[in-house]
Amino acid sequence: MAVASVSPTPLLKDELDIVIPTIRNLDFLEMWRPFFQRYHLIIVQDGDPSKVIKVPEGFDYELYNRNDINRILGPKASCISFKDSACRCFGYMVSKKKYIYTIDDDCFVAKNPSGEEINALEQHIKNLLSPSTPFFYNTLYDPYREGADFVRGYPFSLREGVPTAVSHGLWLNIPDYDAPTQLVKPRERNTRYVDAVMTIPKGTLFPMCGMNLAFNRELIGPAMYFGLMGDGQPIGRYDDMWAGWCIKVICDHLGLGVKTGLPYIWHSKASNPFVNLKKEYKGIYWQEELIPFFQSATLPKDCTTVQKCYIELSKQVKAKLGKVDDYFLKLADAMVTWIEAWDELNPSEGDSAELANGVGKLTV
Amino acid sequence: MAQVSIPDSEVDIVIGAVQSDLASFMEEWRPIFSRYHLIIVKDPDLKDELKVPGGFNVNVYTKSDIDRVVGSSSTTVLFSGYSCRYFGYLMSRKKYIISVDDDCFPARDNKGDIIDIVAQHVSNLTTPATPFFFNTLYDPYRKGADFVRGYPFSLRHGVSCALSCGLWLNLADYDAPTQALKPGHRNSRYVDAVLTVPARTMMPVSGINIGFDRELVGPALFPAMRLAAEGKLRWETVEDIWCGMCVKVVCDHMGIGVKSGLPYVWREERGDAVESLKKEWEGVKLMEEVVPFFHSLRLSKAAVSAEECVVEMAVAVEERLGPVDPVFARAADAMVNWIKLWKVAGTRSAVA
């Protein structure tokens, strides 16, 4: 069988930051050392700022605790969550790189079915650097992967694809279940390695997990706000979900792609389902209202940048979700604060790149 | 989730024979197929005698049978080549139909076990589909999986699954230009997943390896899009792609689901992509016209059954695509005739 020669995946070591929220320690980095050591880390320390977080030797990093966040953002720091890993989005804001990879501190290197260690970062980079195909489903999954292609019937005018904004990775071992599912299935482990990457079609929402996530900060960064969670807030464990619904609506509007599937990481820690239930409780009810809201959200044609899309979305959140709970009025305001803070910290970027509407002669 | 067990008597396996010697094909599939009733339809253009080994519970239909049911003038128009299998769908009276091309054989999964495609298709069809929200762990009803955090609870009961689209190892279902460009390219990646293709997402349904719920969508699988230069190789057809776009619109409209992924079959080498390339790329060009049409197609609330959906779609095809190319006008006609035929020959009350 002829094997096509494959050019090596670029390292992007000067173009990618790894953002890690932590409250404990960063011992997990030892296992990731062979894959992460060449990259710059942004560590967002949640919880007690007087605690010293020890970073393993040899890593190049910047670390921000709550005092730093308050100092840098001033009153705008109110939009950054406290006592919740949602605070990680501060790392996205202060980064100066084109790409971000974010990973939880209880995620380790997984092995593929052949027993080889998975370089998750390399796979995310591959996903981000190859196009997405949101307008037509390819039954053989990502057509740009080595060994795959577009199937018969796939329109040629859609084979150029669109830029990929987000790469959503998965997890072996402890699956990302909600509290009720965890309580009913405490022993269930994800042992199924699904060897696929695919584009989530336009118009379809998904539950975005922030445990193993990469994105093109220039394309979608300002929309990656992880909301108001944790201390003083009525809800937790919906930070990444909220960001995921927002980015999907915006990506669909701007003609950008979102991929899901490989790479897998090994998720080692199951959080306490009773604690989780208390955090998620309101979310379980609210998401019944949130999903129809996001499914029907449309953005006007003049929203040509991520920031404009996001501000418009915040107005719609205020107008339509305020009646669900006052929390959403606060959240809508926080979304605006976030964009203001983003633009303040990233002035030379200006608005994120205005994107041409669609690629190729067919836009659907 | 508990797997529903379906009696074998509810399943028909339909094979369209475009080659006459089915001996090795049937022998390879015997361990999996022999407990079911089979319908084999011989391509009416095939001159040679059909060779089918014994020991199967099988009904074979040939040109004379098709002539008797539809009239000899329609036989070739509707049922020649790969489209002969639709005659089998018409004649079946079972709830579930599994259909594979006659150049496909049992494949092995990533553990080395032979894949029982019937069991997998039936499992896909008898567990719910989830077209309204994407589950990142794929089919939540599979053993060892579930809905992930953030999946709305009100959507977890799912909807009926009407169509199960399987995949192919070895020779994948590529078009001729793609296969000709990469002649050595073979699909060796076993992706251990089934997933629901989301609502309003268009997809290329390949007729090579499918299962469907005949009661739900039988009338919506029809032979309508026949290329002028259609040949006896999959590279030279788009009939299944057209039909698949239609059936996806029907499923989306009726609020039922389509799954894609497992099971895999092993597809044997056949034909020469470069030779097929020499024929006009009619199919490829036509696909460019149809995508915007299907994307914007909406059926009325009055279309409740699959038959009603197809009739409405045929009108839309005639009006909006008819002027673009005569092949579409012919397709619209074929769709209307198919529904008439279905009412006469395809329903329970009709005598096979």
From TrEMBL, chain A:
It catalyses: UDP-beta-L-arabinofuranose = UDP-beta-L-arabinopyranose. The record marks R152, R159 as: Required for activity. One of its GO terms (cellular component) is cytosol. Its EC number is 5.4.99.30. Belongs to the RGP family. It is found in: Golgi apparatus. Probable UDP-L-arabinose mutase involved in the biosynthesis of cell wall non-cellulosic polysaccharides. Keywords: Cell wall biogenesis/degradation, Glycoprotein, Golgi apparatus, Isomerase. One of its GO terms (molecular function) is UDP-arabinopyranose mutase activity. One of its GO terms (biological process) is plant-type cell wall organization or biogenesis. Pfam families: RGP. It comes from the Eukaryota. InterPro entries: Nucleotide-diphossugar_trans, RGP, RGP_fam. This is UDP-arabinopyranose mutase. Signal peptide: none annotated. The keyword Cytoplasm does not apply. Glycans are attached at R152.
Automatic annotation (TrEMBL), chain B:
One of its GO terms (cellular component) is cytosol. It is found in: Golgi apparatus. It comes from the Eukaryota. Its main location: Golgi. Keywords: Cell wall biogenesis/degradation, Golgi apparatus. PANTHER family: UDP-ARABINOPYRANOSE MUTASE 5-RELATED (PTHR31682:SF4), UDP-ARABINOSE MUTASE (PTHR31682). Belongs to the RGP family. This is UDP-arabinopyranose mutase. It comes from Actinidia chinensis var. chinensis. The lineage of its organism: Eukaryota, Viridiplantae, Streptophyta, Embryophyta, Tracheophyta.
